[in-house]
## 1
Amino acid sequence: MSRYRQRPLDFAGLRTVGLRERGGKVKIADFASAYRKGSGVAGLLDSLPHILAGDSFRAVVEALAAARSAKRAIIWGLGGHVIKCGLAPVLIDLMRQGYATCFAMNGSGSIHDFEIALAGHTSEDVEAVLPDGRFGSAEETGREMNRAIAAGDAEGLGMGEALGKWLDGAELAAGEQSLLLQAYRNGTP
């Protein structure tokens, strides 16, 4: 005999429905297909499933292409993870091809990009440095970013342009990987 007061669920009143009668939102006609070698980006997009994110992604790609054709602004908003996960080269390429006309980047994105340009690496081990108060205390990052921003402010520049301009005159470890620098050089806000 069970020691619990709750008894097992009583399914006597449960009504089921046949699978064919119920139908489904996901059908095999919507499934992804294998990518055909040599079919390019269009083939890759065509191979994605026609459900949820697959259709959403295609819609974004179509909207980007339409905006580019119409010479409309294409503004990319991004945070630090986009930069520290290594996507700046993709964004730089999209910018050069006309699929990005402006970047709206938050502070952590700027910090990660600035560190990558200066040192070729970023993203400290938070768990290791947080307890003793060293989190966010890289000397060059704070000092040089603040110098760049202050100098830019004196010239009436926004933060992104100020950082890009400063990086353009600095000795860098990985300037080609810096979205701030490449956007500045490209004249992209």
## 2
Amino acid sequence: MGPTSYMNKQTCIIITSINPPNKAMQMFADGIKERNANFIIIGDNKSPEDFNLDGAKFYSITEQLEALHEFASLCPTNHYARKNIGYLLAIRDGAKVIIDTDDDNLPFEAFWEERRLTHEARVYNKQGWLNVYKLYSDANIWPRGLPLDEISKETPKLETLEVETLDCHIQQGLADVNPDVDAIYRLILPLPQSFKSNDPVALKPGAWCPFNSQNTTWFEAAFPLLYLPAYCSFRMTDIWRSFVAQRIAAVNNWPVLFHSSTVWQDRNEHNLIRDFADEVPGYLHNATIRKLLEELKLEHGDDAITSNLRACYCSLVEAGIIGSEELPLLDLWIKHFE
């Protein structure tokens, strides 16, 4: 893979937005310009026609169709999965590291540190679900996507976990102030919440925790796993992607790294009851998805990643969890990695 740390022209930050340039986007653009890196913003039907932000490359729907006609034509509009187009454009342009974030996350100074593949981290190697947020907080808090019956289960103290040096192809950073919690949390428990600055923790194969698209670093070997499903709930697309990614990472013996916050969220306006409705498929199916994915017989190795990806999504389509329309779009995605 070459060098193992980047924050330069081989790094690309990607967001999708329907908003005009805001403080978060301006901060990302300013930081990127200082480092000669790249910043892609993927628009949608509601994006301003005159969007312009120095330091960012904005792609309107028309420009997306011009750049990646086949995939952009099939990918639904008015959907977060349009972000897939940004990933493909970054990869086409030579990205080695992709930083996944949103237009309401604002970077701390630590966000701009070099992205290193190799980390010294606390290691969690038990089978099953782990509430990573509890390793960084004393509050009753859990990540969006964690099965509800796992919320109250005991979590080990971070300092009791052994330390190892590991290559981590997927790295999830937390977010302070308004972290990524589900609608149930938002309706009944207090915000803001911020996390402790603790050691990173690496989840070994067989350990599961949902991760999101708000502050996530992906290294080149894991790029095929960036795929966001389009034929599922908006509130589940990045969560279900994380389950597929963790399953395929596991067969390759890749740990998934979680680390302290390097952004804080000034959350865009949301209808919490609508969010709750969009999260119901997750409340009902997240544990089932893990079981389905664990039962699959996948192959080890970089060459098998795309076939494993298709096997995972076929399983979810066959179970009626994701729509069958997903598979033609996924096949177009896979073509970019063959």
## 3
Amino acid sequence: MKNALNYLCASLFVFITSCQPSGEVFADATCIENVAVVHPENGLIENQTVIVQGEKILKVVPTKDLQLSPENKIIDGTGKYLMPGLWDTHIHFAYIKELAPSMFDLFLGYGITSIRDTGGEIGYVKSWKDKALADPQNAPRVMIAGPLLDGIPNVYDGSSLARPPLSVGLATEDAITKKLNQLDSLGVDLLKAYEMLTPEQFAQITKIAREKGLKVTGHVPLSMDVISASNAGMNSMEHMRNLELSCASNADELWQQRLQLLEAEKDSAGGVLRSKIHSLQREVAVKNYDDQKANEILKVLAKNETWQIPTLALSVVTTNKHFEKADWKESLSYLPEAIEERWLKGAQDYNQLEITDFRRQYSDWMINMVGKINEAEIDIMAGTDTPISLLTPGQSLHEELVLLVKAGLTPLEAIKTATVNPAKYFNLQDELGLVQEGMWADMILLDANPLENIENTKTINAVIKNGKFFNKKDLNVMLKRASNPVK
């Protein structure tokens, strides 16, 4: 009888324990099982399980090494690819203010989890940064520069729709010091120098920036050449702006001509004068391109670690014609109706532009130069200048990645420009840019391998922002909401 009772108890114990769920349980977590992780530096790491708990990544381990209890919230990652969230490192909230309320949803809907605003009135752009900080799971991370720091006359002076008041014109040393102190006190993440500054003003900006621990990005001032700007402390260049003027065999002659024009026409409107100089010199410079001179410049940029944000989607817009592509046309349905109508008209206007030999030559020059910059091991960041030139927030970053690959980067190198590199630029490499334990959980789940075809960054299955999971249905709701945002 005693043996029978012992047998019964043992059998009951085996039965009960066999009914208990086996495996490890992670409370309040999302577990993505058996997924291929895209590491922007090392490539593809297959068969991984990624545990997201709270706002951060708790674990990344081989699936074979971790048995999950079915009590967990488990997402089957079989056949899918998990990569870090993307950055667009050149955007403008203030360029089309009626579009700004839609931009958070547009960015997140397309997997852009961090952005860098490169110019706008400080109170306005700071309001968007503050909104993002107040609700980080439902907004991209926002870094701001404040207004373009320009000389006199300043370019973006509010004189037209094409030149909204994105800049401040700074006439004196005292004005520069006061403005930079104000921007620093308001918490800008970097400064942006612009084209009408004098060399002395530019040097003052970079000096104060160094003292405050701020990076200086921008356009090479028309009064300077690229090497002088880099040596003076320019940390990064947007659009490779005015690089072509320094790469010409007659660069010194062009520089002297610019100095004369800047002095003779200093009472002109800044935007008009800048456009005149570009019209006079850009084509001449590209047609007199000197490869040896370009290589000398690139060596200096590499030595000084002057990063590049090419914004190819903007620079080659007339030849690339992104507005003829299906994904751009789809993105229009997510814009407020008045902007959608305006952009459709804008696309028609672009299509009527004559594609001159020089436009083709300039586009080719831009594409080829990005390839040379990459070969020179100068760090590149992906940015678009959205919403300028009909570039849809979010969607345009994927177009930029395609163009970077066209310029000679591998898909992995292109992904690095929108993940690891921006994190490193802002000294956030221990927090962002990788699918790695301890990092903020900013990620994109894809249905196809982006390393096989960069276009596959568009196959978004889900987006995770600070640990919050948005599936396809959520993303569709988000994108549709962008067309009628809460103001």
